Structure formats: structure tokens, C-alpha cells
Amino acid sequence: MATHTGRLTDARPAIRTVGLVRRFGDRDVLKKLDLTVAQGEFTALLGRSGSGKSTLLRAVARLDHTVEGSGELSVPDRVSLSFQDSRLLPWLRVLDNVVLGLRGPGARERGLTALAEVGLEGRDRSWPHELSGGEQQRAALARALVRDPELLLADEPFGALDALTRLKMHGLLRELYERHRPAVLLVTHDVDEAVELADRVLVLEDGLISVDLRIDLPSPRSRREPRFQEYRDTLLAALGVAQPRLSH
Ligand SMILES: Nc1ncnc2c1ncn2[C@@H]1O[C@H](COP(=O)(O)OP(=O)(O)OP(=O)(O)O)[C@@H](O)[C@H]1O
Question: InterPro entries, per this entry (predicted)?
Fold first, then answer.
């Protein structure tokens, strides 16, 4: 797996949409949406249920050929995807899942390196069902990263995990991001997850980006820090969730 080298010299954004429309029946779920995500930028996407987050992610992933729509979209060649369900193929061992479709003599070695990076050293010959939910997500991250993506698209990747495993996965994802620097678009319902991980948080509302907030905090971030809480409150308010303020 390559670390980030000369990639940032090219100023092309990782995602660019202009006037993106996606329509189901007579409802425009995305309404001429403009979005630019820079190379190497970690962006989280929040929004109420049904606001169109997955629709946007699937459009960017070019997984929506059957959906009616219009607008311009440009994304890089190397895009990796990660979902709530790890989508490992049950009939392939973990390493074979990670390197599936990869070519070249070094593929298996790269797969083993990626597994070690996500903390799954020695599990290459395991079957997916022998891994815990968190380990399956680690394997899915290895599968995403071994392709050296310029853009990582993640739709609620930790949504099915217990709270403790989720926190550990946050640390791992941020660490891998800092080492490899793909652009990331992370769809999540979890405001804390967004503020903890991303450098920019978007809120999707009524088919458009209603909030575009830069998170100016050093990493790793503490949820107890007052500025973390300010960002959280701003985003919760944007999502229409009233947040009682505790007095000190
Ligand atoms: N294939 C489809 N056919 C018809 N309607 C769809 C389809 N996919 C999504 N929609 C509708 O588009 C809207 C946006 O769905 P989408 O899954 O993008 O929302 P979301 O913000 O990701 O929601 P959630 O947070 O609940 O996962 C919803 O009203 C949904 O019912």
C-alpha cells in the first residue's frame, strides 16, 4: 500500500458535482446539488433519515445507473467503498476477500500488509464467519485500502457495531486516513463520529447542502473539549435536535 506521495500536486478535486439531480418518481431527492471535495479531505455527511445521503453516496460511487437524474459528476479512477455490512464473500478466506480482483505478483503481500495495518495479522486464512463484527469491518477496511484509493466512500461503516468497538474503529480509520490520505466521504447519523473524525462536516437537507462546517480541531480529538461540544451543538441544531445545555 503506498503512502501519500505526490498525489496532492494535482489540484483536481476528488469529488465535484455540479447541479446534481436524482429523482425517485416525482420527488427530487437531490436538487441541483453542487459539491467539491478536495483531494485528501476527510468529509462527513449528516442529514435526517431520508434526506438523501445514501443517494448522494451511490451517485458519487456511480452505483445508480438506473436512477433518473442529471448534472455533472467527476470522481477519481481509484474509488473504494465501505458499507455498514462488511460485504465479505463468505466462500472466500479473509485474504482472498481483501485481494479479490487485484492483479500483479505483489497482490497477496500487499493484502497481508493491509491486514496487519488493520490489526488482523495472522487472520488471513480465517473465514469471514470466524471474525467478529468489528474484525469483519477491519477486513473490509483492508480491502478498501489495499486498492490505494484516491477516494474512500463509506456509508455508515460502523453503524452495526457496539459502542466500544465503534470507538476503536474511529481511531483506526483516522490513523489509516492520516497515513494514506485518500479523500473520504463518510455518511453517518452520529454527530460525534462526524466531529471526531472529519475535517469538514456537511448537512444534507431538502436535496441540498445546508451546512458546510470546517472542524478546526487537532487530532486526536476529545469529545469533552468545549470546542468539540460547540461543533456538536451547531450540528445538532442544524439537524433539528434540541440539545439541553448543562450549566456548570
Ligand atoms: N430505489 C429507490 N426507489 C425509490 N425511492 C428511493 C430509492 N432509494 C431511495 N429512495 C428515497 O429517496 C429518499 C432518500 O433516501 P436515502 O436512502 O438516500 O436517504 P438517507 O439520508 O441515506 O436515509 P437514512 O439516513 O435513513 O439511511 C428517501 O425518501 C427514499 O425513500
Answer: AAA+_ATPase, ABC_transporter-like_ATP-bd, ABC_transporter-like_CS, ABC_transporter_ATP-bind, P-loop_NTPase
Query: Could you read off the pLDDT of 97-134 as tens digits, one per residue?
Result: 999 989 888 999 999 999 999 999 999 999 999 999 99
pTM of the model: 0.91
| DSSP string covering 115-157 | HHHTT-TT-TTS-GGGS-HHHHHHHHHHHHHTT--SEEEEEST
Pocket of ligand 1 (CB under 6 A): 24, 29, 47, 49-55
The string of DSSP letters for 87-126 reads ---TTS-HHHHHHTT--STTHHHHHHHHHHHTT-TT-TTS
- Name the DSSP letter for residue 245: P
**Ligand 1 pocket test target in 31, 53, 155 with most atoms within 8 Å of CB:** 53
Closest C-alpha residue for ligand 1 atom 6: 24
pLDDT band (50, 70, 90) for residue 146 = very high
φ, ψ of residue 20 in degrees (nearest 5)? -75, 125
User: 243 C-alpha to center of ligand 1: Å?
Assistant: 26
- Residues found in the chain: 248
Q: Are 203 and 46 in contact (CB under 8 A)?
A: yes
**CA 238 / ligand 1 centre spacing (Å):** 20
Give the ipTM: 0.97
Sign of the Cα pseudo-torsion (178, 153, 75, 209, in order): negative
Ligand 1 mean position, distance from CA 50 (Å): 5
